[in-house]
Amino acid sequence: MRAKITYLVTAAVLVFYFVLVGSRGVMLIQYGTPVTVAFGIAVLILPVIGLWFLWKNTQFVRRANQLAAELDAEGGLPLDELSRTPSGRIDRDSADRVFAERRAETEAAPDDWRTWFRLAVAYHDARDTPRARKAMQRAIALHDGKPVQTV
């Protein structure tokens, strides 16, 4: 729940920022000189790109949460079997061991979204966020029956 609140607060702050920047872009355009119009258009592009990224990220998180709920209902969520340091951080060797198991599971069933979901969790635990995101995107695509690009 804390993560949802943090995400919503961050999204609200970003939207406020985009509105503020967008209003400055409109003011520059209204000023009417060629230079300020050009700057105003450039300033308006930034909030549009930011809103697009925020929307795409929100869709990704929503879909990943839906998969997690479905996998939880099936009893297939990965168990937290990781060792932790006294400070609470995941032990690297433990994360590597679980990752190897998840990778083998995924190689055995490459068309099953569940194995890709669990692999994404293992990547995340191993602190490899880019690969965790790619694995989760693949799990979402497989779940939705969309064609999956091979890398």
Write a compact overview of the structure shown.
By secondary structure, this protein is mainly α. It contains 5 helices and no strands. The protein starts with a helix and ends in a 7-residue tail after the last helix.
Annotation keywords:
151 residues
Radius of gyration: 21 Å
Unreliably modeled segments: none
Task: Give the helices and strands as they follow along the chain.
Answer: HHHHH
By DSSP, the count of extended strands is 0
Strand content: under 5%
Distance between the termini: 35 Å
Shape: elongated
Q: What's the average pLDDT? A: 89
Structural class: mainly alpha
- Give the proportion of residues in helices: over 70%
Major β-sheet, in short? none
Number of helices: 5
